[in-house]
Design brief:
Layout: E1 24-31, E2 36-44, H1 49-60, E3 70-71, E4 75-78
The chain binds zinc ion (ZN).
Zinc ion is lined by residues 13, 15, 18, 20, 44-45, 47-48.
């Protein structure tokens, strides 16, 4: 039994019709000036990264930060189990990323 226990749980893509493992977290860096955290807007696999990102950006439009708070742009972060949200690295923009969705 030499199975590695790296992934304690395997998060899934938030897309309703997708059951692929999530590779990215959709989030926005929130700060109140002293502390920082990543607002979570869902998880996504490689296929849905663009649509999930756009959906999150749309949702975010309805959110207003309270006084003294700042919220950065919604972006994709590379999901790495065991890392804290604020330590996640932003995902590289693949440029065109013109993948067709089913
Ligand atoms: Zn997906």
């Amino acid at each position: 039994m030499a199975e590695e226990q790296v992934f304690r749980y395997r998060p899934r893509c938030s897309h309703p019709s997708c059951n692929q493992p999530a590779l990215f977290k959709v989030g926005a860096v929130w700060s109140d000036g002293t502390s920082r955290e990543l607002k979570n807007y869902g998880l996504t696999c490689e296929t849905h990264r663009q649509s999930q990102l756009e959906r999150a950006r749309h949702n975010r439009d309805g959110l207003r930060p309270a006084e003294g708070e700042t919220v950065g742009p919604v972006a994709l972060f590379v999901l790495e189990p065991g890392r804290r949200d604020t330590e996640l690295a932003p995902a590289m923009d693949s440029g065109s990323g013109g993948k067709a969705e089913p």
